[in-house]
């Protein structure tokens, strides 16, 4: 296994890896965009202080198991079917479940009793297609707390699936946050 992949860029050009990746760490050292169309196996992703974009865009189903640091500056583009399993996914500032005309599926299945989503200031989850889906799947009794509102698409769109898997799944929000927005129904 490689020790590190360091991504450097100005967020206008892409680094694209089409094969499977097995690496100890992925570091965004000065921004940059990493596009993956293969499997990613890494325990750590550090988005750095200058932001970074991680994009999954292949035709398969992928897993994101890494611990994320500096998520408050990051962007995750889901252009495929992706499952995140570490609670630090909640620190990612912008999650785009998008590709107009092609619904995408993003599942969060973290094995934590308390899961905070949209926990970075001004964080957001965007749906790029009315049929794109966010699934919250509980492997244990779990409380999912949204620190910011999950708005959906203006005019209606975006699907949230809540799956307790036989466990208690409680969804709440901080300080008046909402799932959906009046007028987007």
From TrEMBL:
What is the recorded name of this protein?
A: Outer membrane protein A
The organism of origin for this protein:
Rickettsia asiatica
Recall the taxonomic lineage recorded for the source organism: Bacteria, Pseudomonadati, Pseudomonadota, Alphaproteobacteria, Rickettsiales
């Amino acid at each position: 296994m490689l020790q590190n992949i360091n991504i450097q860029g100005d967020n206008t050009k892409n680094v694209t890896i089409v094969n499977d990746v097995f690496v100890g760490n992925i570091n965004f050292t000065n921004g940059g965009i990493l596009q993956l169309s293969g499997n990613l196996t890494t325990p750590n992703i550090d988005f750095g202080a200058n932001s970074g974009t991680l994009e999954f865009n292949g035709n398969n189903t992928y897993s994101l198991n890494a611990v994320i640091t500096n998520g408050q500056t990051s962007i995750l583009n889901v252009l495929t079917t992706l499952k995140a399993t570490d609670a630090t996914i909640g620190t990612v500032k912008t999650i785009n479940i998008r590709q107009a005309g092609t619904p995408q599926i993003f599942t969060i299945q973290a094995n934590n009793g308390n899961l905070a989503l949209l926990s970075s200031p001004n964080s957001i989850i965007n749906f790029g297609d009315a049929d794109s889906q966010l699934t919250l799947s509980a492997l244990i009794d779990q409380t999912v707390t949204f620190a910011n509102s999950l708005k959906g698409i203006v005019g209606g769109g975006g699907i949230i699936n809540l799956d307790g898997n036989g466990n208690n799944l409680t969804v709440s929000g901080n300080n008046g946050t909402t799932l959906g927005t009046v007028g987007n129904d």
